Amino acid sequence: MKFTNSLILATISAVGMVPLQADTGKVTLPENYGSRFVRYFSVDKPNADEPDKTKMRFFYVNPESLAAAEAGQPLPHGTVLIMEDHAVERDAEGNALLDASGRLIPAATITNIFVQEKRSGWGTEYAAEVRNGEWEYAWFDAQGKRREDKSMDGCFSCHKGAEATDFNFTFSPFVAAIKQ
User: Fold this and answer.
1) pTM
2) Which residues are registered as beta bridge partners of 136?
3) What distance in Å separates the CA atoms of residue 14 and residue 113, rounded to the nearest whole number?
């Protein structure tokens, strides 16, 4: 009997520690986000180890959430954050080109699109070690097709460290800067 109880407890503990596969079907890629959403930030992502993976990232937010967001507060339900990866312009030798300010020059080519969305009640199926509040994630290719072959575990793991800013790295600090 002790062995059976121990086995049951071990199984429950192990299941609680395994990240659940994210239900990426909840998150969709908003139509016309490039023209309808607000681009609020961009970042250069040089990659010295693999220069061909150097990219530039553009960050977008739906305008309703930008208007409703308050500095120092959790972001409103319905917030949709988009991170759009772009290839960069290159010279004849394949080196990434920089503009006059020393920033990478983005190419028109989109390589990946990542969506982070917050809805009331989302995330309850995840263990506390994994859960990112009420946020879910999805990964899309350049044509807007969902990357079913990709796990969102990396998104959950990385964003878990940003709990103090409602599980995002760029938008909450942006709101704090513009809505003091």
Assistant:
1) 0.85
2) 117
3) 33
